[in-house]
Amino acid sequence: MSAHGANPNRIERFAVSSRRRRTDRLARGGVLAGTLIALVPLVLVVYYLLREGLGAWSPHFFTTDPTGNTFFKSSDIGGIRSAMVGTIEMVALASAIAVPAGIGVAVWLVEYGRGHWFAQLVRFFVDVLTGVPSIVFGLFIYIVLVVGTGFAGYKGSFALALLMLPVVTRSAEVVLLLVPGALRESALALGAERWKVIFRVVLPTALSGMVTGVLLAVARAAGETAPLLFTAGATNKVNYNLSQTMNSLPVQIYTDVTSPTQSVVDRAWGAALTLVVLILILNLLARLVSRRSRLA
Amino acid sequence: MEAASIPGGGRSRLGRSPLARLPDRALRYGLTLLAALILALIVYFFVRLVGEARPAFAKEGVLGFTFGNDWNVSAEHFGALPLVVGTLITSALALLMGVPVAIATALYITELCTGRLKGPLTVLIELLAAVPSVVYGLWGIFFLAPKLQPAEQWVANKLSFIPFIGGGVVTIPNYFIAGLILAIMILPIVSAIAREVMTTVPPDHKEAALGLGATRWEMIRMAVLPYCRSGIVGGAMLGLGRAIGETIAVTLVIGDAPQLSGHLFSQGYTLAAVIANEFGEATGLHRSALFAAALVLFVLTLLVNGVARVMVLRAARSSAQSRGGAAKPDVADAEEAAVLGA
After folding, report:
1. Is the pLDDT of residue A242 over 80?
2. Residues near A83 by Cβ (< 8 Å), separated by ≥ 6?
């Protein structure tokens, strides 16, 4: 530690030792390698989806229902029309239930329940819902609605709605908390009623952020298989009546995967590509909307 | 304002008529009712699930069901230990493989990469979360599992002296493949939370480390990682909760064998997978046993999520103390935002 003024060794003492430099380089390389490893499955999944799925796509594939003939190789197995229609119908109904309910609970938590013990309890239960495995949602609905009456599309929608509810509530709550208190206060000071403040000031300000959360919840619900297995049942025919059994893309894929016939497995790949494209579009929309958000 | 009240004893000019106040009250009580209704619904579901599971618990006993090592449908013996163990093995594997990679991606994105790469990389990692469970299963069983089987057999042969890993015949569907698929599935959420927490590290801490002559890695090790520990642990536990409850992808690649096997590359079963596979044809006691399995699964996820919460709280408190009481309430908020963003 002697400090000789013009000693050239002095610079060296501040330099990073080669051992430390090696550790640094090694660790940075490891971090980069980890990141690249994370991208490997993405590339592989996309590659196989495109390779196997595009081959199955055809006008016939999107405009016919599955025929149920999967045993004989020569017979026409049909496409995925009923599955697409079923997914869209069931997810639409599920959103119609979960979005108003979820946003309503979020508004209550932020506007009325702040600091209240009951709000803490509700928040805790919403968190509990977030952690519930999706197949357990399916069984909940099975016990309450399906036993004794059979499968139906709207029962599948209820299961999906349960799944969406906590996602919508928590994302809406986060966005509503971002709405500046000054906005609320100025509206109240001008004499607006509480409900008018909520509908005319708070909700419009938070709108784009909430839309983002809703779209992500819809995307998640569209990809779920487990809640539909024992609630919506399985059918091949296209069906516009939500009180009957209903096909859906994930369930169609799930049943096709286990088939020994190659053409049926091909249909599973085609349906999987369709489902992923659908979900990607929803994600893209969510991203675009969130970019336009007025709240940071 | 001097005539705020009408001399005749009427109401204030600034006050509202009871009729005008009605929508306000309606909204307030309507929303409260809605929140209460959802609460009641969850409790009702839980009670009904317990009711449906009761026959199986009555026959085997709660502990006998959970820890009995015999799942035999035709003999009506229902001991769920092979399923519980399968669930734990696959989720532990998912954590083991998924969390380090997730932390690496988060570190790379927040600390090491150039600004131009940040956005695209984040989007790419989040795309992993957009792929549905059944598609991972499809990909896993037709591509990943067959392609990896020779490599797994090689590892099993080379490491035959290690009890759990080595020896034995590698089947195409097995615990390891299920764990690997789960690792891929939990990667985006763990990464998102880790990233979100890492952005809350005060620049002062990082600059101080660099200013004292630390290399980039030393800065990460001494300033970033200790600050983020609680958040990363919480993110990992949330990932664990997802892995435990994941159903369809695991069902397709686990092999449906309800036996305990002391071997990483052999077929197994998980709680969620057994429900998905057997519930369709189950009747009577078998169905009740599957409801009981769902209940065990439900309680398991509740425990994991609860422990995650406690760990995050405790870690946050201790790190705040070690930093001279510098509280950091924003970490928990960031975590929430990250969970929702994923």
Report:
1. yes
2. A66, A247, A248, A249, A251, A252, A271
